[in-house]
Write a structure and sequence with these properties.
Layout lengths: L2 H20 L3 E2 L2 E5 L7 E6 L6 E5 L11 E6 L5 E8 L3 E7 L2 E6 L4 E6 L9 E5 L11 E4 L5 E4 L9 E6 L5 E5 L4 E5 L11 E5 L13 E6 L5 E6 L4 E6 L5 E5 L5 E7 L2 E6 L4 E5 L5 E5 L2 E4 L5 E3 L3 E7 L2 E6 L20 E6 L9
Keywords: Signal
Protein name: SMP-30/Gluconolactonase/LRE-like region domain-containing protein
Organism: Pseudoxanthomonas japonensis
Length: about 350
């Protein structure tokens, strides 16, 4: 059985058990916008809370590299396309809005970049800082105690490529960035004003690396309301983690969230884009499932995903949440993934549920 189908079957059993216990209804998703022709694989999202403008960055990693056309897209609050800024062959991962600027993790170039949030096709892009290989390139082994009293040790490898992936600002203006291959979280202090900027290793732990079928470890990042806890996703392990700031140990909050990708904290809930089960899950701060949004409902005759297909990121705009359908094929086998049938890409939306009583 293909890896993705196996994960879907296991995840269905997992989600079904939760639904029976909590009587949870799945929140329906509807289309927000279809991306322009030849723009593919929206991976990251951000929004300007004042104007409601929505930004999307793409992860176009096709081979050969000359075929790629990575872009930043800018939409108004209702989904009308305002601008496209091309980045060419280098795929983009995280994007974040801050004080009129859009910060971009240029995965392919190992750079943090920024540009004016009201960008046009020709707006200059500024390099902020480069990311480099760590020494050692991989985190230490993970020691696992088994129920029978034996011990396992998972040893990680890395070629030293800084796989910058997710990011989040704190209120002070420091930026935190995940590295999916080297098992690290970085901090860049005063990123709007630093000259030059310095990349500090804020955390490094075997829980941030993975040997899973999905080869990305540390991924989405989010702070709780008072910024005393940094939440982190491990996509390959299907885990949501947490770390008390600044010096707490990294702990497991929730397991079984297959393909835990983008992460967003909003009104007391952690919204996790579970890209391998085509849904968003909302967890409370104890790790208990509270909501599920979206499902995969097929591919239209026009090549568009219906529902969610490999959701990678979400962003809040008023009383709704917008979701990026990355729809990225992973395996080299032809015919085993619905993502192969997608020829147009889209962003979806759903109405946010009422927040938990303690978060109102």
């Amino acid at each position: 059985m293909p890896v993705r189908l196996t994960l879907l079957c296991l995840a269905g059993l997992f989600a079904g058990a939760y639904a029976q216990a909590a009587d949870l209804a799945r929140l329906p998703v509807t289309p927000f916008v279809v991306l322009p022709d030849n723009v593919r694989h929206p991976e990251s999202l951000a929004t300007d809370p004042a104007s409601g403008e929505v930004y999307a960055g793409t992860f176009d990693a096709r081979e050969p590299a000359a075929a790629r056309d990575n872009q930043l897209l800018r939409f108004d609050a209702d989904g009308r396309l305002l601008a496209q800024r091309r980045f060419g062959a280098t795929p983009l991962t995280g994007i974040a809005f801050r004080d009129g600027k859009l910060y971009v993790l240029n995965f392919g170039a190992s750079k943090l970049q920024r540009l004016d949030a009201r960008f046009t096709a020709g707006t200059p892009v500024e390099d902020v800082v480069m990311f480099a290989a760590l020494i050692p390139a991989a985190p230490p082994p993970r020691e696992i105690a088994n129920p029978d009293g034996s011990q396992d040790a998972i040893t990680y490898g890395s070629q030293g490529f800084p796989a910058i992936n997710g990011m989040v600002f704190d209120r002070a203006g420091d930026l935190y960035v995940s590295d999916s291959f080297q098992g690290a979280i970085y901090r860049i202090a005063d990123v709007a004003t630093c000259r030059p900027c310095h990349v500090e290793v804020f955390a490094r732990d075997p829980l941030l690396a993975t040997t899973g079928a999905l080869p990305f470890g540390a991924n989405g990042l989010a702070f709780n309301a008072d910024e005393s806890i940094l939440y982190l996703n491990n996509a390959g392990d299907g885990r949501v983690l947490r770390k008390r700031v600044p010096d707490g140990a990294i702990e497991v909050l929730a397991d079984g969230v297959y393909g835990a990708d983008g992460l967003l904290f909003h009104q007391g809930l952690l919204w996790v884009a579970a890209n391998q089960i085509d849904t968003l899950v909302a967890l409370d701060e104890r790790g208990r499932l509270r909501h599920r949004a979206g499902d995969f409902l097929g591919v239209t005759a026009d090549g568009l995903p219906r529902g969610l297909l490999f959701p990678a990121a979400s962003v809040v705009q008023g009383r709704r949440m917008i979701v990026a359908n990355l729809a990225l094929p992973l395996t080299p086998v032809a015919g085993d993934e619905w993502e192969e049938d997608v020829t147009r890409w889209n962003l979806m939306q759903f109405d946010l549920p009422d927040p938990p009583p303690h978060a109102r």
